[in-house]
């Protein structure tokens, strides 16, 4: 029986900086059910990490959610007091970050970092928490976990630290796991191990996963559904296969054309997207992709297209869609 | 260019023989007589590179790809071996003798943020190799800088700007312009697109390919991304812990990989679930061991899915298994 673990409706997040207001996320909607893997894909600065931090309510002080709903396991968390939100982080929602060296506390033993959420959220005694921590490290594939519990993060390799972070994130059996570029800093063979581990744990725990990445290859490999973001906006979403085989938005098509795969014809030049992503402070009116878009029409520069459903479950925001 | 190798159809521009680059490692113990260990970053590498061709070099982090690149350019002085460039062994030349050769052999670095001097204008950064090459006429230098900016697709206005005003992709274009300003024939590209976003990565890949044809450049292209290496290279070498384990023309290497490590790397490349790949998945256990005191025999044996008892006894030589296709595996 699938349950809806996260529902986001029309999320809008802003950053208030010295240079002006940044529309980091503008109207993002998505749904995650237990057992689902949903990908959020886009380039740096497109708002994918800001979206994740909004779900976690971990935005930096200059960031603010100014609209929309984030319903986590049936509860709207947008205006939840910080104290109550803290109780949800761990048992309901957890996150894995890209840079494991920065995300773990360098002055604290890995074991203590693992036991902390167990003691606070699961109310385990220190001895029980230690047992549970050993079990968790074992589950994520760290050899001789009893010994490694007393090691510090710098004593682990990148892949092993990423496993520790997964263990911490999973310690309180969250219903939703957000992974923000979990394998970007890792080598391919280790990336494969970590992705497999995440899928295996999803099957065991039945949690939903949001995977944030810039690599369309990774999305096509493990995600059931995908949301494509550009300049803070959701430009296309749907089943991964539908979106990648039949992209409707020109940005999605451009992103796929720019990505190499092992099957790419070597004699053919890559069809790169010309130009650069826009500055989010001075966004032009209309569609933010218009200046780089090969299918641009008059209307694109004046009016922002809304998302509309192309086929069931597949949406795109474009005035001049590929049919 | 008069070289003895002119009888072959394609001229060999660079030949590397038995190249070793060892560094002093951490102390073995706290007593002075226990001595230091040795980090064998590059441990006996041979390859040949022909004019106008691209050799791709792949491997995971720490396998010695970047060290190899620096040792080839004599940015590190190799511990042993030969680097024969246009018929001369670079390892035997003094720094002063190397200087004119450096104009012909350049490098593009991975990190477009760290490799540009933040206090120098773009124009100065690109012109600096010309100053070192002894071009004294300022007008001539400026003309060349403007020509290069055009060549890499940047506007002439950027000449007076500073690196912080640019995005990663634009900075990488500056790095490419700087590498090409002395009109080199050989360029080492050390992960030039790894730090860039997908759409920008595609632009830079196209630029590198386009420049190669227009200027008849020879590339040594280093990357950990097999998809990029496959796309750009004529020949590919796979490195593992300081050694080349397989080297072959691109189509052969990707179509018919012989070394189990190459197969594992290929099978780890993300691919769509709905695509039938035909490649059986090999998931390697563990990670690349440390190059300090690496395993004896075949370095890959401890992680190898098909290793036999003999593999950790002796080091398999890089031998020609099929014409032009070499692999260092007893079982290939």
Word description of this protein:
The complex is a heterodimer of chains A (323) and B (332). Chain A has eleven helices and twelve strands. Chain A is 32% helix and 25% strand. Chain A is globular, with a radius of gyration of 20 Å. Chain A has 323 residues and is α/β, with parallel strands linked by helices. The relative contact order of chain A is 0.14. In chain A, α4 packs across α5, α5 crosses α7 and α7 packs parallel to α8. In chain A, the strands form two sheets. In chain A, strands 6-7-8-3-9-10-12-11 form an eight-stranded mixed beta sheet, sandwiched between helices. In chain A, β11 and β12 form a beta hairpin. Chain B has 332 residues and is an alpha/beta fold. Chain B has a domain of 67 residues. In chain B, 28% of the residues lie in helices and 24% in strands. Chain B is built from nine helices and twelve strands. In chain B, the strands form two sheets. In chain B, strands 6-7-8-3-9-10-12-11 form an eight-stranded mixed beta sheet, sandwiched between helices. The longest helix of chain B has 18 residues. The N terminus of chain B is likely disordered. Classes of the chains: A alpha/beta (323), B alpha/beta (332). Chains A and B meet through α8, α9, α10 and α11 of A and α6, α7 and α9 of B.
What is the gist of this entry?
The complex is a heterodimer of chains A (323) and B (332). By secondary structure, chain A is α/β, with parallel strands linked by helices. Chain A has helices at 48-56, 82-88, 100-103, 110-121, 126-139, 145-148, 158-170, 188-205, 216-222, 240-245, 250-258; strands at residues 4-17, 20-33, 37-41, 63-72, 75-76, 93-96, 176-180, 208-213, 225-230, 233-239, 308-311, 314-316.
């Amino acid at each position: 029986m699938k349950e809806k673990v996260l529902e986001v409706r029309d999320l809008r997040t802003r950053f208030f900086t010295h240079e002006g207001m940044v529309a980091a996320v503008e109207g993002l909607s998505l749904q995650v059910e237990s057992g689902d893997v949903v990908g959020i894909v886009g380039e740096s600065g497109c708002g994918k990490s800001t979206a994740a931090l909004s779900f976690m309510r971990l935005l930096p002080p200059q960031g603010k959610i100014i609209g929309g709903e984030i319903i986590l396991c049936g509860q709207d968390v947008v205006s939840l007091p910080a104290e109550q939100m803290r109780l949800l982080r761990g048992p309901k929602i957890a996150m894995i970050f890209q840079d494991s060296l920065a995300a773990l506390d360098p002055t604290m033993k890995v074991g203590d970092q693992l036991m902390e959420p167990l003691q606070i959220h699961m109310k385990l005694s220190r001895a029980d928490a230690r047992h549970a921590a050993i079990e968790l490290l074992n589950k994520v594939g760290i050899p001789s976990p009893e010994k490694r519990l007393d090691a510090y993060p710098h004593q682990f390799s990148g892949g092993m630290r990423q496993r520790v972070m997964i263990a911490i994130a999973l310690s309180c059996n969250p219903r939703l796991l957000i992974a923000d570029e979990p394998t970007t800093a890792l080598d391919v063979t280790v990336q494969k191990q970590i992705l497999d581990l995440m899928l295996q744990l999803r099957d065991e725990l039945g949690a939903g996963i949001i995977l944030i990445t810039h690599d369309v290859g990774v999305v096509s490999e493990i995600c059931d559904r995908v949301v494509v973001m550009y300049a803070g906006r959701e430009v296309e979403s749907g089943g991964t296969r539908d979106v990648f085989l039949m992209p409707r938005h020109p940005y999605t098509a451009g992103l796929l054309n720019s990505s190499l795969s092992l099957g790419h014809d070597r004699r053919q030049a890559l069809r790169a997207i010309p130009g650069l992503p826009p500055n989010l402070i001075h966004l032009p009116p209309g569609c933010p992709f218009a200046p780089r878009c090969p299918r641009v029409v008059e209307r694109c520069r004046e009016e922002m297209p809304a998302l509309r459903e192309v086929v069931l479950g597949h949406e795109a925001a474009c005035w001049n869609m590929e049919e | 260019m008069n070289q003895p190798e002119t009888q072959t159809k394609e001229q060999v521009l660079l030949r590397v023989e038995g190249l070793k680059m060892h560094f002093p490692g951490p102390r073995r113990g706290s007593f002075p007589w226990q001595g230091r260990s040795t980090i064998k970053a590059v441990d006996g590498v041979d390859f040949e590179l022909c004019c106008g061709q691209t050799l791709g070099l792949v491997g995971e982090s720490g396998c010695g790809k970047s060290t190899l690149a620096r040792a080839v350019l004599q940015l590190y002085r190799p511990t042993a071996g030969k680097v024969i460039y246009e018929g001369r062994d670079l390892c035997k030349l003094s720094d002063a003798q190397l200087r004119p050769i450096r104009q012909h052999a350049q490098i593009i670095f991975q990190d477009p943020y760290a490799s540009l001097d933040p206090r120098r204008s773009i124009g100065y950064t690109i012109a600096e190799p010309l100053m070192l090459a002894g071009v004294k006429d300022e007008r001539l230098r400026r003309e060349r800088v403007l020509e290069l900016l055009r060549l890499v697709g940047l506007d002439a206005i950027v000449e007076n700007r500073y690196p912080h005003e640019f995005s990663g992709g634009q900075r990488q274009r500056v790095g490419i312009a700087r590498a090409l300003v002395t009109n080199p024939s050989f360029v080492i590209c050390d992960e030039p697109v790894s730090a860039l976003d997908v759409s920008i990565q595609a632009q830079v890949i196209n630029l590198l390919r386009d420049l190669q044809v227009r200027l008849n450049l020879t590339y040594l292209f280093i990357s950990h991304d097999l998809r990029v290496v496959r796309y750009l290279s004529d020949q590919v070498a796979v490195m593992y812990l300081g050694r080349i384990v397989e080297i072959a023309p691109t189509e052969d290497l990707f179509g018919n990989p012989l070394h189990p490590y190459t197969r594992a790397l290929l099978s780890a490349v993300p691919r769509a679930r709905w695509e039938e790949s035909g490649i059986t998945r090999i998931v390697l256990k563990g990670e690349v061991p440390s190059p300090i005191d690496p395993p004896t025999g075949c370095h890959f044996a401890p992680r190898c899915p098909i290793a036999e008892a003999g593999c950790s006894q002796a080091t398999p030589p890089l031998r020609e298994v099929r014409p032009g296709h070499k692999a260092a595996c007893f079982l290939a």
